[in-house]
Amino acid sequence: MLRVLVDSGSSIKFSEQEKCNVEIIPLRYLMGDKEYQDGLDETIDDFYKELIDNNLFPQTSLPQLDILKDKVDGYVSAGDEVIIITISSKISGTYNAICNLFADINSVHVVDSLSAVGGLRLIVEEINRNRDLPIDEILAKVNALIPKIRVIAIPETLDYLMKGGRLSKKEWLFGSILNLKPLITITNGVVKVATKKIGLKMAMRECADTLKKWNADENYPIIASYTYNSENLTKLIEMTDAVYKPLMSEYDNLCPVIACHWGPNAFGYIFVSKD
Fold first, then answer.
1. Quick check: 171 and 193 in contact, CB under 8 A?
2. Element containing residue 151 per DSSP (H, E)
3. Does the pLDDT of residue 98 top 80, yes or no?
């Protein structure tokens, strides 16, 4: 049997495990002096209320590796093949930690998504489409897909990305002056400023046009995501070319462990490019 596990940086919710045919590995985050398991210990609404009301900059950390080890060892003992998909190794230590955990077990395959949130969801969907294939062929399809996954997003502020170490102080400084609205991408697994526009409306237009500029593949869904408030995401979709609107997935209110770094009121698209 094939078991697929994905860390909660995928923003796949625990309530979606059965539908997505996966198991979620909860990452952890620290709010003030209290630690939470992502998606388990408090609701998304409670998380955002605490984040905004207390003006916090939470820290994130690895999953509980001992619990993960026991679970996966049980699957291996039963003769299962296991695929574990993690958030990009360039922005989290989860991939390397899990690789080390199962380095000597040939039936455990750890995949570096080089992405986050909807990028992992797209990988899960690719696996589900090909579950009848041998494991090597499934992994080949996944590895072919990963370089084509694109993320484009507009944060309300760069403060969270900078304080969380996902964006350099230089990029934070240039993106925070002159009313410039940066468009953020994940390139080769690293968070980068793709471009900057003057004002939110122009940034939205650039984000909407990115689907065509980056040659979005219409054979895959476009995952429309936001943190806390979907109002700007709705406006972005209204500005987007009609050919792409039917591809929009259900709005994804990003999980706490991701919102820790993006802050509230970020929004954007995750999609697959033909290139």
1. yes
2. strand 149-154
3. yes
Would you call 151 exposed, middle or buried from its count of C-beta atoms within 10 A (0-12, 13-18, 19+)?
buried
- Prediction pTM value: 0.93
What letter would DSSP give residue 225?
E
Judge contact between 196 and 255, C-beta under 8 A: no
Locus of tokens 């797209």 = 122
Give the tens place of pLDDT for each residue, 2-45.
999 999 999 999 999 999 999 999 999 998 889 999 999 999 99
* Residue 240, CB-side half-sphere exposure with 13 Å CA sphere: 23
**How far apart, in whole angstroms, are the C-alpha atoms of residue 24 and residue 188?**
24
CB atoms within 10 A of CB 100: 10
Cβ neighbours of residue 126 closer than 8 Å, sequence gap 6 or more: 141, 142, 145
Helix (H) or strand (E) run with residue 236 in it: helix 231-239
147, 155, 140, 141: which is closest to 119 by C-alpha? 147
| Domains of the chain, first to last | 2-147 (3.40.50.10170), 148-272 (3.30.1180.10)
Q: Yes or no: say if 271 and 217 are a contact pair by the CB < 8 Å rule.
A: yes
SS3 content of the chain, % helix, strand, coil (to 5): 40, 25, 35
Q: How far is the C-alpha of 17 from the C-alpha of 24, rounded, in Å?
A: 7
Q: Which is nearest to 193 in space by CA: 236, 239, 240, 158?
A: 158
